[in-house]
Amino acid sequence: MNAAPEPAGDWLQVSTSDGPMRVYRVRPADPVSPPAAVLVLQEAFGVNEHVQDVTRRVAAEGYLALAPELFHRTGGGTVDYADRDTAMGLIDAISPDQIDTDVVAVLEHVLDAENIPVQRCAVVGFCFGGRAAITAATSTLGLGATVAFYGPGVVAGPHAVLDRVENISGPVLVLVGDQDPTIPAEHRDALRAAADEAGVDLRIRVFPGAGHAFHCDARPAMYHEEAAREAWQLTTSFLAETIGKGRP
After folding, report:
1. Contact status, residue 117 vs residue 111, Cβ threshold 8 Å
2. Is 212 an annotated catalytic residue?
3. Sheet harboring 172-177: ordered strands across?
4. Among candidates 169, 131, 123, 124, which has minimal Cα distance to 150?
5. Which DSSP state fits 49?
6. Considering 102, 127, 187, 224, which one is annotated as catalytic?
7. Helix-helix angle 128-137:96-114, to 10 degrees
8. Which of 180, 187, 216, 224 is catalytic?
């Protein structure tokens, strides 16, 4: 039996208060019912081939999948994995409020064009996008779910949002390697304590032996196959439970 073809993606343009933003979109071949959407928030290197591939993987689970170009204010495009200085400059240039603006713009498009309400939407982010996912969750009332793959800077730093955790309305899944120096144990403990105090459904999974960017199979030196496989299984189960097949 031949495998089902991978969903094909296209690009659309969404208006934001800071100008137009390109969004990579993939429609599911076999959508969940009722329909649901997942925003895939990029790493520090833009909506590159790897992020597009992850977006297609999300769509293969039955979700309308959309990856917004969060660097649209600084020209968009992608950055080579070797050019860390440029990537760091780009993420430093985007504020939590601008992330909120972009996520809300995509959610409004999904509601207007696809009739999918925010309660049936989730954000899944990686690296910078992991932090951006939690940032969005702290300001988007009613968001169905949030998944943050190794998102640094949530607890401390210029873009920290620990003081906004009480605003999170939906469940949050945090996935991090125990060898990731950007998210030390004390940061995980602080996030967990803030969530507990606020009554937020926060689940943290720590993967032994995995470092930062362990899910990125486009970076062999960072990729940790076992952790990546388990993290993706947890993510798809979490999405099914919160916005997908497991939700009545």
Report:
1. yes
2. yes
3. 9-16, 19-26, 64-68, 37-41, 121-126, 145-149, 172-177, 202-207
4. 131
5. H
6. 127
7. 70
8. 180
180 is catalytic: yes
Please list the pLDDT of the chain residue by residue as tens digits (248 residues).
444 556 779 999 999 999 999 999 999 999 999 999 999 999 999 999 999 999 999 999 999 999 999 999 999 899 999 999 999 999 999 999 999 999 999 999 999 999 999 999 999 999 999 999 999 999 998 999 999 999 999 999 999 999 999 999 999 999 999 999 999 999 999 999 999 999 999 999 999 999 999 999 999 999 999 999 999 999 999 999 999 976 55
For 234, residues 6+ apart whose C-beta sits below 8 A from its C-beta are 173, 175, 205
Element (H, E) at 239: helix 225-242
148 near 117, Cβ under 8 Å?
no
- State pTM to two decimals: 0.96
Tokens standing for residue 45 = 């290197």
Beta-carbon contacts of 187 under 8 Å, excluding residues fewer than 6 positions away, are: 154, 155, 156
